[in-house]
């Protein structure tokens, strides 16, 4: 099945988002015909040129996908309610389930009924947990600790049931922290702090973290969309290079052309400061290890990340510095 991307008809949900903006041109460049979802509030011009727009109502258990799924071979499902640090929903887990679990299930069932052959689902390493000094693998037990991770795990389980019932092929990818041009949230904030030369008390942290450049993730998604051996599999994906927090800061600083201003502080005091300031979760991510073994894709699909971490960080820095010049 598949293998050649030429003339593959692919629906990308979340096509105007962080990952979608990198994925869509990659697919088009490989000869795929790409349709991308846009919200009613978005202009079609928000999509990369050459992507066919289709307007979709907000993702949920009642979303109608019939127009979007006409003559589609494969779906790459990026759209989701994303993890946020300060969630204002009265019941965050219920809201994550409504969008990420029930909404994904609705898409999969309509896809199967429409004759779609494969659905590639972007899950999260949060399904496995928040920290692990021993690399997570595809066979590691699930241990999500927040509503986002729980909703993604439940979506995976629901997709596997639909796969067994209908024959729709499902491929699940669990990326680590994704960075690249257009990145937001904590990674963007870290870049701002480094670029401003603010000293950081993180020199004593001796952890290891796996990350994935958005260009590598897009390439992995494209491989999973067409490779004949990907159906039914779950893969963890990263750059294949693990770094400590101080190493990452030095790499970011070098990409930005500024010195890395690090000084040592006992990790216990860093954690205390995080607790006092209400930033415990963010501090834990800086201090803990989270590493993955993504060799499953290499052995099954022959996939190798096309970009090194240094290349990914340089591209991210170029984008960041460009936005600073426009919006200083």
What is the CATH homology-level superfamily of the domain at 9-179 and 213-238 and 293-298? NAD(P)-binding Rossmann-like Domain
Q: Largest sheet, order of strands side by side?
A: 3-2-1-4-5-7-10
Strand-residue proportion: 15-25%
Architecture of the domain at 9-179 and 213-238 and 293-298 in CATH?
A: 3-Layer(aba) Sandwich
What is the overall number of helices? 11
Mean pLDDT: 94
User: Number of DSSP strands?
Assistant: 12
Measured between the Cα atoms of the first and last residue, the distance is 50 Å
Provide the CATH top-level class of the domain at 9-179 and 213-238 and 293-298: Alpha Beta
Q: Encode the helix/strand succession as letters.
A: EHEEHEHEEHEEHEHEEHHHEHH
Low-confidence spans: pLDDT under 50, at least 5 residues? none
């Amino acid at each position: 099945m598949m293998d050649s991307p030429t003339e593959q008809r692919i629906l990308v949900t979340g096509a105007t988002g962080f990952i979608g903006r990198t994925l869509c041109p990659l697919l088009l460049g490989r000869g795929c015909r790409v349709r991308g979802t846009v919200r009613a509030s978005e202009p079609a011009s928000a999509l990369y040129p050459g992507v066919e727009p289709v307007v979709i109502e907000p993702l949920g258990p009642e979303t109608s996908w019939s127009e979007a799924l006409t003559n589609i071979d494969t779906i790459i499902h990026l759209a989701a309610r994303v993890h946020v640090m300060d969630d204002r929903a009265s019941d965050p887990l219920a809201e994550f389930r409504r969008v990420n679990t029930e909404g994904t299930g609705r898409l999969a069932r309509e896809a199967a009924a429409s004759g779609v052959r494969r659905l590639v689902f972007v899950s999260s390493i949060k399904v496995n947990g928040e920290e692990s000094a021993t690399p997570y693998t595809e066979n590691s037990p699930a241990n999500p600790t927040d509503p986002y991770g729980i909703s993604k795990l439940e979506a995976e389980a629901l997709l596997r049931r639909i796969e067994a019932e209908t024959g729709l092929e499902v491929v699940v990818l669990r990326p680590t922290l994704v960075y690249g041009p257009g990145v937001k949230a904590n990674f963007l904030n870290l870049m701002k702090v480094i670029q401003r030369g603010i000293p950081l008390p993180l020199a004593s942290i001796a952890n290891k973290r796996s990350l994935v450049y958005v260009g590598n993730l897009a390439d992995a998604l494209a491989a999973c969309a067409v490779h004949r051996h990907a159906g039914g599999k779950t893969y963890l994906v990263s750059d294949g290079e693990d770094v400590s927090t101080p190493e990452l800061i030095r790499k970011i600083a070098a990409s930005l052309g500024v010195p890395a201003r690090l000084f040592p502080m006992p990790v216990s005091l860093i954690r205390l400061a995080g607790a006092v300031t209400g930033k415990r979760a963010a501090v834990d991510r800086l201090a803990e290890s989270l590493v993955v073994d993504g060799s499953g894709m290499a052995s099954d699909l022959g996939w190798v990340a096309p970009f090194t971490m240094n290349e990914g960080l340089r591209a991210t820095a170029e984008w960041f510095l460009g936005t600073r010049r426009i919006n200083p």
